[in-house]
Amino acid sequence: MADLRVGLLGVGMMGRHHARVLREVEGIELVAIADPGGDPHGVAGDLDVLPDIESLISAGIDMAVVAVPTRFHEDAALKLAAAGVHTLVEKPIAHTVEAGQRMVDAFESQGLVGAVGHIERFNPALQQMRRRIEAGELGALYQVATRRQGPFPARIADVGVAKDLASHDVDLTAWVVQSPYERVFAQTAFKSGREHEDMITITGRTASGVIVNNIVNWLSPMKERLTVVTGEKGALVADTSTGDLTFYANGTIPLEWASVSSFRGVSEGDVTRYAFAKREPLRVEHEAFRDAVLGESTDLVTMRQGLRALVVVEAALESARTGDALRID
Q1: pLDDT tens for residues 217-269?
Q2: Can you name the residues that pair with 146 across neighbouring β-strands?
Q3: Dihedral through CA 302, CA 296, CA 280, CA 12, nearest 10?
Q4: Does the pTM exceed 0.85?
Q5: How far apart are CA 52 and CA 9, in angstroms?
């Protein structure tokens, strides 16, 4: 069977990585690149850099990857859906929930694969974490805490840290525990003089009763990407910047030191850092996109799932504005 023809819209900071990986994945061929801003990172190779989405569609593509600023996602996606092109857009799905819903409707009505690039689902540490939780290695789940912080990326101009980064944590949290957010309360801060927030803390609860805390900012000089899931048998800690997963088991040895045991709910147990294959998440994501287009069942994040993450983030921003805890419909 001939390779699937792929077009890429946007070759900026994220698009350049898509260009590299798309050329490495078997069964697909990168045949067209479009970016009105040209090719700042020199990734086009022998391909012409087309000026717009219309010219990308005219190249005769089966699949498309959209890696342009968030406010342009809807326009590009709707044109691709009308042309019958399976599409993966970078996260967040859109700049507003209404725009995201229009995208979901367009792709579902056409029977096309519509996906969102929530790449953390393909991080090896989180995939291992979810498998082990599914296998019952943590027992009942109590809490998820994530920390995603680092310096401000100058490339982001059209959204704040909530939609750009917290959307990762909202999606991965619900995916790891397999339960959607039910309630959120959030606080934001504006410290860098920009229109949008550069710090957000989201506290919430999933429908299954798991307590959630997401700490996200662009104000830290250190880069941190941690997900901690605590359950009745211990805690799993995923460092998604390195792909490492560590298990901290609850101890089974009784404590005889009275002054310690009197205030400890559990005792310290064994600590295990797991060894497993670590493949590049972006490559695994593109393989899942390819397989979904071929009709296979994959872990690809659908546009409907991506919309759910945006709904939660929007609710968090509204909570921060009003000071109220909000229930997610």
Answers
A1: 999 999 999 999 999 999 999 999 999 999 999 986 665 655 555 555 677 88
A2: 214, 227
A3: -50
A4: yes
A5: 8
CA distances from 94 to 6, 71, 153, 196, 246 (A): 21, 7, 19, 16, 34
SS3 21: helix
C-alpha 143/C-alpha 299 separation (Å) is 24
Tokens of 122: 């393909």
User: Per this entry, what is the length of the chain?
Assistant: 329
To the nearest 10°, report the CA torsion of 106, 109, 113, 116. 40
The per-residue b/e assignment along 66-91, b for 16 or more CB within 10 angstroms, e otherwise, is bbbebebbbebbbbbbebebbbbbbb
Q: Which CATH number fits domain 4-118+283-301: 3.10.350.10, 3.30.70.2740, 3.10.28.10, 3.40.50.720?
A: 3.40.50.720
* Topology given in CATH for the domain delimited by 121-278+310-327: Dihydrodipicolinate Reductase; domain 2 (3.30.360)
Q: How many CA atoms lie within 13 A of 134 on its CB side?
A: 9
